C-alpha cells in the first residue's frame, strides 16, 4: 500500500506550485506548461473534492486525505513518464500535509507525512497572497490567507525545500518562474 504514495524515478526536472488556495497556482501551472511545451500535473484534490461536493454535498474529511495523496502521486508518476525536460506540478503531498495540519488540529496521517517528506522536487514556487481571493465550491478560508501563507512558508523552510517566492501580477510571476526554471534546465544540459 505504501508504494502507492512513492514517487517513481524520473530524469525530468520537477517544479511545484505551492501555497494557499486562490493564489494562482493552476493558472501559472498551465502557463508554464505552455511556455515549455510540456505538461502539467493538475491538483487531484480539486477533482476528487468537487465530485464529493457535487454528489454528497460534503467537504473534505480526514479520511479523504490518503485517497487524495494516492491519486496525486499516481497522476504525477504517470505524467512524468511522458516528459523529458520539465514537469510542472500544481501541488504535491507536502501541500496536502500542510492542509491536513491546518484543518485537522495539527494531525497528519503518518503515511502521508512520510511521503510528503520523502518525495523530492527540484524547486518550489511559493505563491504569495497578493492577488484577490476568488470564491468557488471548495475554497473556504478567505480570512485566513496570512496564516495559511505562513504555514506553507514554514513547511518549506522547516523541511529545507528549495523555493522561490512568486508575487505580483500573473506576468511578473510567470517571468520570475521562467527565469528560475531556465537556470535549472541550463544546469541539466
UniProtKB/TrEMBL annotation:
Pfam families: AAA_28. Residues 14-173 form the NadR/Ttd14 AAA domain. GO terms for molecular function: ATP binding. Signal peptide: none annotated. Keywords: ATP-binding, Nucleotide-binding. PANTHER family: NADR_TTD14 AAA DOMAIN-CONTAINING PROTEIN, TRIFUNCTIONAL NAD BIOSYNTHESIS/REGULATOR PROTEIN NADR. This is ATP-binding protein. It comes from Aestuariibaculum marinum. The lineage of its organism: Bacteria, Pseudomonadati, Bacteroidota, Flavobacteriia, Flavobacteriales.
